[in-house]
Amino acid sequence: MQKFNHIKWHLGKDWQQLHPAVQRRFNRLPTSEKPIVYQGIMETVECSKAGWLFALLTKIIGNPLSPHQGKQIKMDVILTTRPDKPGVYWQRTYHFPNKKPFSVTSVKKDDNGQMMEMVGGGFGMMLDVFAENGELHFKSTRYFWKFIQWYLPLPHWLSPGKTHVIHQDLGQGEFRFTITMDHTLLQRTFYQTGVFHEVKQ
């Protein structure tokens, strides 16, 4: 079970640069009994042909990337923790028209002072966490495969690209979530943005 807020710890004094509403949103931890639930609309879900291929190839490790595209896509986001497992689990479910709900699950956690996000099969990415203009930012620095206790770095060209996630408060209890992935050779592979609000449990 989580003992402290890793995001707040990583930001240190820069925590105070976040918008107060962003601080409130991230200054708490969900539990399996009391998850944090968000709902919203992804205004844009896009991927390039290369992005679609990455999504297809990564199905084997738990569908970390959506191969589908669309506008005004309903999405549910559930944050929770698991007994005796480190990190906060994020389950994002897309509701594309005329398709089965598509869920992506990852876990954000800290390991020896390094923030990371992991998906299935031991694959994940190291993250830089910082505040800018009141927003919370996550940027990938390296993708890896975890073998036993070792994190083996993957070549950048084998990844879908550098990931950049922005959490921006919009007021009135709403926030914008934006994610981009930009590959050195293949350029932009994924782009998604949408507006969300918390669903009180």
Q: Can you offer a commentary on this structure?
A:
The protein is mainly β. The protein has helices spanning 6-11, 20-26, 49-57; strands at residues 36-47, 70-82, 85-95, 102-111, 114-118, 123-132, 135-147, 150-153, 162-171, 174-183, 187-199. The two termini are 21 Å apart. Helix content is 11%, strand content 55%. A hairpin with a 2-residue loop joins β2 and β3. It is globular and about 40 Å long. The model has no long low-confidence stretch (mean pLDDT 93). A 10-stranded antiparallel beta barrel has the order 1-2-3-4-5-6-7-9-10-11.
Task: Describe the protein's topology.
Blueprint: H1 6-11, H2 20-26, E1 36-47, H3 49-57, E2 70-82, E3 85-95, E4 102-111, E5 114-118, E6 123-132, E7 135-147, E8 150-153, E9 162-171, E10 174-183, E11 187-199
Antiparallel strand pairs: 1-2, 1-11, 2-3, 3-4, 4-5, 5-6, 6-7, 7-8, 7-9, 9-10, 10-11
